[in-house]
Task: structure prediction
Amino acid sequence: MRGNRISLKTAFARQIRGMKIWHKQLPGRISAIVLSRLFTKGTPFVTVFLSARILNALVAGRESKEIWTLVGITLGVTCLLGALGACLNRWKSSQEEEIWYQTEKILDDKQASLDFVDADSQRIADLAAQIRQNHQWGGRGLRRVLSNLEDFTDAAVTALCGIALSAELFVLPVRDGKLSFLNHPLFVLLILGTMAASALLSGRFANFADGAWSGYAADARLGNRIFGAYGNFAKDHKRAMDIRIYRQDKITTHYMEQGDIFTEGSPIAVRYRGMVGLSYIAAEGMQAVMSGIIYLFVCLKAWAGAFPIGSATQYIGAVTGVFTGISGLIVCLETIRTNGEFLKDTYEFLDTPNSMYQGSLTTEKRSDRQYEVEFRDVSFQYPGSDNYALRHVSMKFRVGKRLAVVGRNGSGKTTFIKLLCRLYDPTEGQILLNGIDIRKYRYDDYMAIFSIVFQDFQLFAMPLGENVATSASYDRDRARDCLIKAGFGDRLKTVSLDTHLYKDLDKNGVDVSGGEAQKIAIARALYKDAPFIILDEPTAALDPVAEAEIYSKFNDIAGDKTAIYISHRLSSCKFCDEIAVFDGGSVVQQGTHEELVAEKGGKYYELWHAQAQYYAKEA
Result:
């Protein structure tokens, strides 16, 4: 079970906030729910009321004209209300299929708008996963807000309509002296108290069962995660070889069995066969007993002459509605409170602030593209870490230069690039663009001057040209030229810019190798035509021939841009104007390839000869 339960006041505040979110996301959705439920739940009471008038008229032997008039009114009103209710339900239903998509969109839009420092954090990743698991486990969270509104409206309309049609039942006097006790105020209070107590108990039993279901949320989320990780394992065609060679189906079956959450012998199933099941039976039993009491009370008053027999149908339906509505309200209040606990995760995620300063200066659009970037005594610690990923880094470079960034894994190379692109801000020191702290520039404007090919870049299941331009409308000649510059020219002889990549959306789509995908990613960086192009291990998936081709064309690819090249293969550094050697989060050497390789005992010399020994001829 969860910890201390929240108050109803807090729960309602979270429910109302959720309704505001949905009103903004799907305008009209709240109105559609309230109006459709008002007509759906209210129409039967109108029909019962009019039907009772017809029965009373028949019993009293009224003229046929009067009876037919009542029949006509009943049919007309019922048809009108039914038609309006059907239209409103159709309006509501037309939006229901969007709920899942819109829920994901709310979360995805927030994820996309987060500062990278938050989007990249484990806390946010865990929180987002938790929210989605809550949705999958009993639909808890933002989606349940709409269900709660619907259930609350149903219960409220049922109870209010029942009260309106049954109020006079308790004050109409009986004529039979033997049953005069039915008129006594204490007896009326006894009936009303019994109804209230039964409704309360019925709601409590139902709430106990619902609370038990929610109490297993943590286990269920784990079960969903296990199933999500391993349940569709065999469907991933990329794993087909590993599954067969290493019989990975066995280990995945083992982990699936560990997540014994939803099986017949699970703790949830055992409890539902015990106390929880009994609670559901008790809730239904209380409703059955109360229905019997209502029938008996109404029939006795009708027998004693308090009202015509036709009105008995009205009062039975109305009083039953009061009981059902009140019981439903009690259940709904508890559901709102339970769901409010799950909404805490959602709102914590949605309330994550954008703390990174956005700046206001426009990045200078220089026709000569003469930009100078300076790292001035920059140090950086990742959030939650006590260790420095970078320490006292100071260096300058200008547009048009070729800078190689080399070093062992964990030496600070990727962190250096993240700071340059302002995915993170320095913990200490400054990064300057043309002498101005980059934090003073508009964030999106500053980001626009960089084109980056990350190691873990992603391509989309869309046409090749759209992958290059990241747009549905683009300059085809320019896209083709960028692909050729990136070394994809030979493959263009067999595919076109309109050819879909992969078969996810098009059965005629083509699969591309890792090296081809990397060339497309490089072409995408070139298409953006930003002053800075950053290549993070751009040849990691290329064979030696393709790698040599990229290197030989490196100056053409970069043009007048500043090219910053992160690499483990030091042979690429020979093409660069300057090399920065990182070690332990600091720049330990800077210079050209010739200068650095001549420094015996230096870190670059060590790395160079560690790789060169595999290519050098034996004496």
Remarks:
- Strands lie at 372-380, 390-398, 402-406, 428-433, 436-437, 450-453, 532-536, 562-566, 578-583, 586-591.
- Residues 8-216+261-350 form a domain with the ABC transporter transmembrane region fold fold (CATH 1.20.1560).
- The mean pLDDT is 83.
